[in-house]
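Re: that backbone. Tokens:
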């Protein structure tokens, strides 16, 4: 069972109750009077908001790690109400996020690591097992069973290169370049025979223009005899 298979809100609530038993995660004295961001008007209403925020930060580190305080401040920011003015986004406070990360690191749930260019906190195997245990207990409370994954076939598990290629159907007989087929003179592409050109018969208007009429021919003969 993975913590990714359960709803985030219920996972955070159950993780917060489990973190109350961890001695390293403890709210300081100023947590009752401090605001979590500049966009909020008052401090948090809940008395246990410190462990709830710690559970949420632990889940964020598991999903986004390596992650630092700057990214988490953006995640926990919000829009500030400016009266008649346009609302503006304000990032969250960084002091309580930094203190929570330090407490989770002392508990062994989080550690500092570097991956390529990114540098920050990542979750440890102990932290992943802690979240998975909470998720398993949450699923048992609601009597939810996940469907089993379908079994993979042997052909799908094999790499693509090792699969046997399928034989192609032989549509035509293979002919060597020296041999010529009986029906054709060459083995090249057969050209279509050209159709003979046929002249269109002349229309009646054309025959009248070219051939003189009968009375005109008779007049010409009389003139020649005279």
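Recovered sequence:
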């Amino acid at each position: 069972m993975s913590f990714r298979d359960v709803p985030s809100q219920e996972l955070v609530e159950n993780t917060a109750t489990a973190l109350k038993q961890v001695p390293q995660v403890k709210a300081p004295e100023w947590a009752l009077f401090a605001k979590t961001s500049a966009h909020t008007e008052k401090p948090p209403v809940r008395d246990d908001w410190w462990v709830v925020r710690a559970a949420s930060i632990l889940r964020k580190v598991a999903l986004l790690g390596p992650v630092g305080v700057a990214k988490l401040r953006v995640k926990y920011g919000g829009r500030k109400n400016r009266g008649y003015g346009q609302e503006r986004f304000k990032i969250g406070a960084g002091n309580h996020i930094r203190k929570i990360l330090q407490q989770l690191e002392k508990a062994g749930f989080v550690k500092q690591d570097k991956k390529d260019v990114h540098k920050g906190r990542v979750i440890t195997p102990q932290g992943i097992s802690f979240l998975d245990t909470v998720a398993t207990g949450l699923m048992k409370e609601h009597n939810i069973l996940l469907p089993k994954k379908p079994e993979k076939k042997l052909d799908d598990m094999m790499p693509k290169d090792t699969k046997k290629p399928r034989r192609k159907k032989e549509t035509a007989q293979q002919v060597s370049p020296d041999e010529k087929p009986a029906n054709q003179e060459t083995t090249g592409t057969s050209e279509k025979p050209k159709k003979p050109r046929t002249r269109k018969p002349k229309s009646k208007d054309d025959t009248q223009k070219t051939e003189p009429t009968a009375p005109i021919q008779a007049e010409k003969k009389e003139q020649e005899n005279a």
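The radius of gyration is 45 Å. Residues 125-142 form the longest helix (18 residues).
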